[in-house]
Every structure is written in structure tokens, then in C-alpha cells.
Amino acid sequence: MNARSLARVVLVALAGASCASEPPTDAAAAADVEPGVQVPLFEVDPFWPKPLPNHWVLGSTIGVSVDAQDHVWILHRPESIDDNFKAAALTPPIGTCCVPAPPVLEFDQEGNLVGHWGGPGEGYDWPESNHGITVDHNGHVWIGANGQTDAHVLKFSRTGEFLLQIGRQGRTDGGSNDTENLWRASKIFVDPIENEAYVSDGYGNRRIIVFDVTTGEYKRHWGAYGARPDDEDLGEYDPSAPPVKQFRTVHCVTVAKDGLVYVCDRVNDRVQVFQRDGTFVQEAFFAPDTLRSGSVWDIALSRDPDETYLYMVDGVNEQVRIVLRRTLEVLTTFGDGGRQPGQFFGVHNIAADSMGNLYTTETYTGARVQRFVYMGLGQTSQTDLGVPWPD
Predict the structure, then answer these.
(1) 273 and 326 in contact (C-beta within 8 Å)?
(2) Mean pLDDT of the chain
(3) Is the pLDDT at 27 greater than 70, yes or no?
(4) Number of domains forming the structure of the chain
(5) Are 373 and 357 in contact (CB under 8 A)?
(6) Which domain holds residue 124?
(7) Is residue 219 part of a domain?
(8) Could you tell me which of 140, 232, 215, 217 has the C-alpha nearest to residue 180?
(9) Which long-range contacts (CB under 8 A, 24 or more apart) does 167-175 make?
């Protein structure tokens, strides 16, 4: 019996185990779990989403978010699609299949495509290379801009009406202490409690920067350990060296309901935790011998009342880590490299819906979104559950 089947058997045997359609509701019990013993379990849904219409295909799929209606939004890069995969879109066409889908796609829970839009328009600078999508508590859609000349983020209505641009295209020379412009931002998280937008900024700059959600007014920013960031060349990451005092690639930011701010410092293989004002709390390293693109790509919070778990994706080691939020200890992992459902190639972003299901997107030629159905809490001694294929 493989690790995944063992975990399922134990789950079924648990008295009072959570049903598959609901997230954990016993917050006290969830908070008292033994690390490595009781974990959320998942199965990949190989039939989600449904095929796209119009011969549409995806390029590098670089963002995912779930809105208040549990609709799933993804962002991809149409320009990244190989010519042989967009034959019908070339001038002149070289074949009948296929055509790049619009950059922003919205799916319902059944996997139906229910909305699509995106691209250049009047009054704003569409990114040279988009990166990260977030649907906030007001239903507004935020998109990061990650190309070499991109110094901004964008805000739209859910139907694609332009609302706000923070920063200006091409204004990339201000560095990590510029309070008006960004440089190659990776993701936005909107804190509904304080009505603030946190930007992981990112690939060019090395900081977290915070703006007013409504006006785009600058609030504050900070670098690693809560210090003032600088742009000194850090050289290549060396796992045997002492931890560097600056971020390398600030790839995600998310804020828990208790006010703790979690930051992915991707190439440094670490997560740093702060208070909302930038005060440093703690850090933890994950697969610290991982080189090149790093091991910490994105984080989603579990949807139980205490947000007990962090779900972390790693696009080098091709897995999802399940991390106990209060200690930053890895409980188990799932996934593997490959093209089949439940495997990954460049797993890049992750989001959770209100029922505890997870959604991942894949960059490079992975170019897809996957859904992992929440199966409840179960016990396992396995440090890696492998590919969560349904029995």
C-alpha cells in the first residue's frame, strides 16, 4: 500500500473525521495537533477545469486567486505560448489550432469558464509581463507587473474595467526606497481589516511596500528583518553562508487574520514573518540546499478559523508543503514532478477556497491550473504523501 492509500485508510477510520466538502471547523482541535501526525489531506481532481472554448490555450500560468463566491481566477502569459501551439493566431495562420486565451480567466466551482478579459487598454499600462492575480474583498482584481520595464500594479473591476494604477511604466530606477514606483512586483495581498494592499516588490526591488487600497497612497515599506532595504549585489545564494540581511527575490506576501505578515524570500529558501508595521517576528528555511530559483514560491492560508496551516508551493522541488503556521514546521508534502494530474512542472502559485480545496498554477510550459479536493484531517507518519491520486 502506498503512502497516499495509507493516509486515506487512516482518514476513513478516524471517528468524526471532517467531511470532504467542508474545511476543519474544530479550531481548538486543529491548533493542538502534533506536528507530523494530523494533517489536511487532498486528492487531485483530474476533471477540473473543463476544456476551454474557442481552441483557447494557456501560456505560463502565473497567478491564482479565489473570490468571495468561490470563483477561481487565473492569470497567464499569452505571449509565452510557442508558435506551434498558437498556429491559428499567427499571420498568416499555419494551422487551425490554437489561439491564446485572454490573460484573465474566471472559473466557477464546476470548472466552467464564466469570465475572461485582459490586455492593453486606454488609461493604463498593461504589463510587459504580468505576474500574480488577487481578487480582494470588494471583488476588485489586482494584477502585478513583472517585466524589465514594469514599475506598477493594476486594479480592475471583476469585469475588467480599469480602476487604479500604482506606479508608472519605465520608472524603474528609483530603487527599493522609491515610494511612488515599483520594479518587477510579484504579487499583491489586500488586507480587508486595514484596507491596505501589500505588494511583494519583488524581482527588481527587495521589499514589501504597502498602499491604501482605495487611493493608492503610499503607507510604508521594509526589507528583510524589517530593516531599510538596499540594492547591494548579494551574489549567488550560498546555503553554507550565514543568512543574508536583504531579500533576494520577494515572491509573495500574505497577511493572516491575527496580523502576521508572511513573506516568501524565494531564492533565499526562507519565509520571514512580520507584524503589520514591518516589525520582524521570525524566519524559517525550507529545503535550504535548493539553488537557482529557490524553494519558497507562494503561500496560502488554510481556511479554518485559526488559519492553522500554511500551504507552500515549491517550483524547483515540485511539491506542496503543509506547514504548521504557529511553528513554521513542515508536517508533510504532496506532489511530484511530471505532467499528469497531481504532478507539477514549475508550480508557481496556490490559493484555497472556503471549503478548503486548493488550486495551483504552473509557470514555464506547465501552463495549467489544478484543483486539489480537501478530504478532511487525517493521521499519517509519512513526510511525503506523493501524488494525491484519487482511489
Answers:
(1) no
(2) 92
(3) no
(4) 1
(5) yes
(6) 3-175+277-379
(7) no
(8) 217
(9) 168/125, 169/125, 169/128, 169/145, 172/148, 172/204, 175/205, 175/231
